């Protein structure tokens, strides 16, 4: 009996590139491993596939420049990034967003302990870094957030504080709701809905942290504007039980497509699975003996769901009669 290899969940560069040849080419470059971890940060920040591809392609150019100048990632610092950007300007090969990507990538390498630390900061910068480190420790230890999420939150907080105070002394007690709304309005229109939602979530978290630490007396988190989800503005947030039954009844189970749709809809309706979880369901995830389904959910965590009889019968009908022969282990083809 042939044992089929199980597909691994996409992560890192594979979230932005599907072509294996391109993925291998990116991995083989001088920044391969660092591009992998940086791609995970981009995905966590909500960057769309096209935007992520543009950023990764630009970082490949940095890797090629490092190789030509006989440098490594450990040699990247302010001077090296400035020299690279100067070369790009001379060749008229610098596009919108490239400079920000280069500096963000340098910050990522420093956070990973690859690039040398930044030069000794002034007193104002030291206050800023100290506050940001305390906030980062709060996110990691108190809230238990993932490293990627912590990095995104801290990036937005740093950007807000630099926008508000610049080189002036850090005085968070001077913050006003108008500062927050101005920042959000200025930055919410770039990078898509997911990015804007992450921005306001990070800011609310930071302002709650300031109150808890006694840095401010007023909870400014309530002043952070909401980012409306325009994609769902015209649709209902949920459907009633009777509407669910009507949808299930609309499946023509006398035909293969109807039986397949019925099994999918039951997984959604009875077990509350997400669309991506149903699409990623594999044959080995169904434990018929114990009556359970293993589901790969958010954060690549696996949950066990009960295989209720109604759902089990629908799956059996589809698998026995309608699922085409295939080397794929996915349940639904």
From TrEMBL:
Keywords: DNA integration, DNA recombination, DNA-binding. Residues 234-333 form the Tyr recombinase domain. One of its GO terms (molecular function) is DNA binding. GO terms for biological process: DNA integration; DNA recombination. Coiled coil: none annotated. It holds the Pfam family Phage_int_SAM_1. Residues 126-211 form the Core-binding (CB) domain. This is Tyr recombinase domain-containing protein. It comes from marine sediment metagenome.
